Structure formats: structure tokens, C-alpha cells
């Protein structure tokens, strides 16, 4: 599973646009993450939100704010001037948490999440009269990790 959590600072105002075919909202912004060591320079990457989360991000978040971003990390190819191509890190956001600094350290505010479909609900059948209740077992086995190492 590709899930990434980053504490970052927004350095570019989120830009809201809509796709031409389905009119879906898309917000793009550039965020900066600190280096791993004090001598390492900070890294920058593009962060993208879709749908209602994109509209919320574009209206409620601004440059200079600290955020905790949760999403999927990708490495798409990008054309550079001169005809060369390179891979650049890009985060597709699924949740955003505003981060504030308190006496206890960093504190994340409640999140804004992309709406997820509700899980299907199945009502259990009541046991027939005179029969002992059955032991419930999960409907499906848990997913197997397909990481090749």
C-alpha cells in the first residue's frame, strides 16, 4: 500500500481548477519539507487534491501554514526545457491536517478528508429457534501484501 505522511509548509497558494470533461475540482500547491539532517536542504514537491477536498484546500489553506498531508506518493515524468525528462515527486492528497505549535510540540487539528464511500452493511441473521448461535467469521481473509521482498 502506498501511503505517505508529510509535515510540510505550504509555499505556493493552492491553485483551484476544474477538469474539462467531468468538471471535477483539482487543487495544486507546492509544499516544502525539511531535510533529514540539519545540513540537508529542504525538499519541495507538488501536492494535488481532488473533488470536495480540493475546494476545501484552496479556500482554507494559504502559504506559510504548516500542514500534515496524508496521501499517495507518485513519481511522474516531467518535461524540462531542452527536451529532457525527469521524475519529480508528487503527493496525491487524501487528508489534510492543520498543524499548530503548542507548548507540547506540534499539534494536528482535525482533518479534512476526501469523502469515502460508506462500508457495506450486512445485518446478521438471527439464529433459528432452538439452535445455538453460530460463531461469526470474517467474510473475506485480510489482504495479502504483494511486496516482492
Describe this structure in words.
It is a single chain. The protein has 149 residues and is mainly β. The chain has a domain at 16-87: Beta Barrel (OB fold (Dihydrolipoamide Acetyltransferase, E2P)), CATH 2.40.50. It is 7% helix and 44% strand. The protein has 1 helix and 9 strands. The protein has one helix spanning 51-60, and strands spanning 4-10, 15-18, 25-33, 43-50, 66-74, 77-79, 85-87, 90-102, 105-113. The strands form 2 sheets. A 5-stranded mixed β-barrel has the order 1-3-4-8-5. The longest helix has 10 residues, at 51-60. The two termini are 14 Å apart. The model has no long low-confidence stretch (mean pLDDT 81).
Task: Set out the fold topology.
Blueprint lengths: L3 E7 L4 E4 L6 E9 L9 E8 H10 L5 E9 L2 E3 L5 E3 L2 E13 L2 E9 L36
Q: How many beta strands in the DSSP annotation?
A: 9
CATH architecture of the domain at 16-87: Beta Barrel
On the 0-100 scale, what is the average pLDDT? 81
What structural class do you assign from the helix and strand content?
Answer: mainly beta
Largest sheet: 5 strands, mixed, barrel
- Pick out the low-confidence regions: none
By CATH, the topology of the domain at 16-87 is OB fold (Dihydrolipoamide Acetyltransferase, E2P)
Strand-residue proportion: 35-45%
Gyration radius (Cα, Å) is: 21 Å
Q: Write out the strand line-up for the largest beta sheet, numbering strands in chain order.
A: 1-3-4-8-5
Shape summary: globular
Task: Offer a quick outline of the entry.
The chain has 149 residues and is mainly β. It has a domain at 16-87: Beta Barrel (OB fold (Dihydrolipoamide Acetyltransferase, E2P)).
Amino acid at each position: 500500500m502506498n501511503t505517505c505522511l508529510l509535515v510540510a509548509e505550504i509555499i505556493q497558494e493552492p491553485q483551484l481548477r476544474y477538469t474539462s470533461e467531468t468538471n471535477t475540482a483539482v487543487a495544486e500547491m507546492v509544499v516544502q519539507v525539511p531535510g533529514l539532517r540539519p545540513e540537508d536542504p529542504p525538499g519541495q514537491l507538488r501536492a494535488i487534491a481532488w473533488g470536495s477536498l480540493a475546494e476545501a484546500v484552496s479556500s482554507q489553506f494559504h502559504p506559510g501554514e504548516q500542514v500534515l498531508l496524508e496521501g499517495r506518493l507518485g513519481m511522474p515524468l516531467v518535461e524540462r526545457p531542452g527536451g529532457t525528462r525527469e521524475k519529480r515527486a508528487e503527493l496525491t492528497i487524501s487528508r489534510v491536517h492543520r498543524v499548530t505549535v503548542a507548548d507540547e510540540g506540534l499539534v494536528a487539528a482535525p482533518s479534512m478528508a476526501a469523502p469515502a464511500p460508506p462500508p457495506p452493511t450486512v445485518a446478521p441473521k438471527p439464529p433459528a429457534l432452538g439452535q445455538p448461535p453460530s460463531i461469526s467469521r470474517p467474510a473475506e481473509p485480510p489482504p495479502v501484501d504483494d511486496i516482492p521482498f
